[in-house]
């Protein structure tokens, strides 16, 4: 038997990259690779990258720099860049970092095994196509190994929305949905491996059209999968929240009461400049409708401060929207210029203005998150236990609202859903006791 080769894969960015990395490990498994947790003893290093903001992309080049010595010590070490930086920069990566052997985009990583042959033969391999063949059909079936209780499952990729600040429509391409029957089969296979909760992923997951009744149709089909207890989905666009999906939040027991629905800004002028194609008012009315269907829903969002042209008054509109909506959880970013996007042409705001706005916005969002966590104390929640906590005798899992919950429990609760009474709130988690 030949000794397996070792693959070190480092994942940046969103959950879709986490899913892609798993599939890349599986694809290279067919070439005799097993995953290793350290780059030091690897035969191949793959960086699965993110291009959404400038800092994320720069991190890739500084990380590559750190592998220079490893490559000098071991000339057989192959280094690859995958993901959205690979897609956006292509050959430029090899020009800037000649020690890179392989560059593969998010739509072509099913070709990794052939690319690996090429790099072992000493040639550089570059593939940033948007091929006609479906990568999910070409990829190996998912391994039948035992898995943890939660998993991601990509059902939709790409984006046709073209928000003026965003690189995704360029790096991930047009909106494409996987057929429902394939998604259901993959979900069944995940459940057979121990998965109890599946998060359906897509850059615009609620634009999913691989089922005749859209994402709601897929959720109802997955609702029938025995052994699957929980369904989540992310990320959604407000304009794709159809009535069937809103209704599912009120009627489908397996669909968890958590929704990530980014608005980005609260000023209509800025929303228009961002090409979001909805107003602040329309978003607020939509949230009201969703909360009418599921009153305890925990809402999460994304915000960008300092979009070109944003005035103090525009920023105040964003703050007002946040106060009105109230978020249980949120992500916020300073606007970052992305080459090739329409907003990159516009004059930028000074950094200190953006910094000050981000600070006030994050203070408000933190206040709302703390309030949400505090309000859970005394309530009973359902926790899907995932692993042991830091302290002995402690297990950790997620509530239906996606809060991390710690409780004293036997390790045998792993993979089980238990009722827990919340007794304490921490900045980012909750403590509870089994009931
Ligand atoms: N600058 C800052 N934040 C951005 N996002 C996307 N593009 C940019 C950019 N150019 C944020 C949006 C999006 C999240 C994934 O990243 O808020 O919802
Ligand atoms: Fe980017 Fe907008 Fe598409 Fe989201 S909806 S991926 S922010 S272009």
What is the molecular shape?
globular
Task: Tell me the number of helical segments per DSSP (H or I, 4 or more residues long).
Answer: 15
Predict the CATH topology of the largest domain.
pyruvate-formate lyase- activating enzyme
CATH top-level class of the largest domain? Alpha Beta
**Terminal-residue CA separation:** 51 Å
Nearest-integer average pLDDT: 95
The CATH superfamily of the largest domain turns out to be tm_1862 like domain
CA gyration radius, whole angstroms = 22 Å
Largest beta-sheet details = 6 strands, parallel
Residues in helix, %: 25-40%
What CATH architecture of the largest domain would you give? Alpha-Beta Horseshoe
* Spatial ordering of strands, largest sheet: 2-1-3-4-5-6
Which kinds of small molecule does this entry bind, naming each only once? Answer: 5'-deoxyadenosine, iron/sulfur cluster
Count all strands and give the number: 19
Total domain units? 3
Write structural notes for this entry.
The protein is an alpha/beta fold and 435 residues long. It has three domains: 5-127, Rossmann fold (3-Layer(aba) Sandwich); 147-375, tm_1862 like domain (pyruvate-formate lyase- activating enzyme); 380-434, OB fold (Dihydrolipoamide Acetyltransferase, E2P) (Beta Barrel), CATH 2.40.50. The protein has helices at residues 15-29, 54-66, 68-73, 83-89, 91-96, 112-120, 135-138, 168-171, 180-192, 214-223, 243-251, 268-273, 280-293, 312-325, 351-374; strands at residues 5-11, 33-35, 44-49, 78-82, 102-104, 125-127, 150-154, 156-157, 176-177, 197-201, 230-234, 258-260, 298-305, 329-334, 380-388, 394-399, 404-408, 417-425, 429-434. The longest helix is centred in the C-terminal third of the chain and has 24 residues, at 351-374. The mean pLDDT is 95. Bound molecules: 5'-deoxyadenosine (5AD) and iron/sulfur cluster. Residues 159, 161-163, 166, 168-169, 203-204, 237 line the site of iron/sulfur cluster. 5'-deoxyadenosine (5AD) binds at residues 52-53, 165-166, 262, 264, 302, 304, 333, 335-336, 338.
